[in-house]
Amino acid sequence: MIKNENIRNLVKKYNENKLSHVFLIETDNKEFAFRDIKEFVKILNCQENIFQEDCSKCNLCHLIETESLPTFKVIMPDGQAIKKGQMETLKHQFSTVPYLSKYNIYMIQDAEKFNASSANMMLKFIEEPEKNIIGFLITDNRENVIHTIKSRCEIVNAYYGQKNIVLSSAIEALVEDYLYNIEVEKEKSIVYNKDVLDSKLEREEMILFFKAILKIYLQLFQEEIIPEKLISLKNLSKEQVFKRISLVAECLERLNYNVNILLLLDDFVLRLED
Length: 274
Ligand SMILES: [Zn+2]
Hints:
single chain; Rossmann fold
């Protein structure tokens, strides 16, 4: 079943023939949004008279599920970015009218990861739409999507109320910088905390922030791969890492109450030292 109401409403729009040709889905859970769109694509294509959840009877639903239907393309960033070549391939593949299904449908994960040249290709693609193409761009933050693309999309909010599970990439990047500065550069002054974080993060985001820190220390503890920038943290002893994990856990606990965030951070940085 489509979990999100706004995505479910697209089925209604489809039945009324009112579907836009490109959507920007802003979501707090890309995986759930991905699943919901897939369900939507199945509903559009299912060969059974009445679509059944988890339809396993028809070939099309099966092909959609396994992402092997030629008229349904899923694009993930190639490394750090969506590349121009990926968009060219898509444009080429969708230059013919869809067969087997009514629409050519593409879905782009991480719509914030267009670079200048792929964004340009994307714009051309949106501006000269071939018939019967529908696109879904998925992002966790519409503010990070290139404006010219965003302005041509119909925006759909798809929130699943599971914010805590998804660490936005923005926060992860911030945490990398933060740990780099306090752990590697040893920039442990209280002024630094103030500069970097003062009033930028709400309490809820602060929880995500500390969870992202916890994730990195846990990776260290389990000797898993950690971000390149923080590689010198591997010199910490197990005891030192364990101490950090306990400290972050304590900060997370305190965030459940109405703590002063700046004081909490100062405390965190100072206690990393002893
Ligand atoms: Zn089916």
